[in-house]
Amino acid sequence: MIKKDMAQNKTTENELSVTNFINTVAAETKRTDCFALSHIITETTGFKAKMWGTAIVGFGSYHYKYESGREGDAPLVGFSPRKEAIALYLSAHFKNRDELLARFGKHKTAKACIYVKKMSDIDIPVLREMILNSVVHISNLYP
After folding, report:
1. Strand 113-116 to 49-52 pairing
2. Residue 129's beta-bridge partner residues?
3. How far is residue 48 from each of residues 60, 61, 139, measured CA to CA in Å?
4. Can you state the percent helix, strand and coil of the chain, rounding each to 5?
5. How do residues 94-137 score in pLDDT, each as one tens digit?
6. Which of helix, strand or coil describes residue 97?
7. 7 — phi, psi (to 5°)?
8. Are 72 and 7 in contact (CB under 8 A)?
9. 72 phi and psi angles, rounded to 5 deg
10. Is 103 within 8 Å of 50 (Cβ atoms)?
11. Phi and psi for 107 in degrees, rounded to 5?
12. How far are the Cα atoms of 21, 41, 88, 120 from residue 91, in angstroms, in the given order?
């Protein structure tokens, strides 16, 4: 029996310019917020912003391997300016997630994504704590 190659991830770290990407964001407030968010994440984690695929700004990376055999690399923390909001990519299970989200400010959530319309809607110290807790959780899960 021949094993089929697993599908390759399209969202991989690359050398595209983060600054050029953020500068393509049409809305001035969202563009300014993305630069501020990039600075906050770098300052909080110590990781430099890198492009992942063509639309995700990621910080740090980790290698995952699921029981299914699927494996790959992903950013420890990331964000993407989407049409309706900025999507924050954090672990779905970091320490004190519900309690921190309750204090975070105006946002919406999906499985692992947290969506914010603008930075002025959120509590930055809470964001920093969520980022750190997420990095710790992922780093412990995939050492």
Report:
1. unpaired
2. none
3. 7, 11, 17
4. 35, 25, 40
5. 999 999 999 999 999 988 799 999 999 999 999 999 999 999 99
6. helix
7. -60, 140
8. no
9. 175, -170
10. no
11. -160, 170
12. 24, 14, 10, 23
Q: Quick one: tokens of 110?
A: 């999906």
Query: Quick one: pLDDT at residue 73?
Result: 94
Tokens of 24: 């393509």
The model's pLDDT over 35-61, given as tens digits with 9 standing for 90+, comes to 999 999 999 999 999 999 999 999 999
In degrees rounded to 5, what are phi and psi of residue 105? 115, -165
The residue whose two tokens read 């980022």 is: 131
| Cα–Cα dist 9/136, whole Å | 24
d(CA 32, CA 70): 37
Buried b / exposed e over 119-139, threshold 16 CB at 10 Å, is: beebeeebbebbbebbbebbe
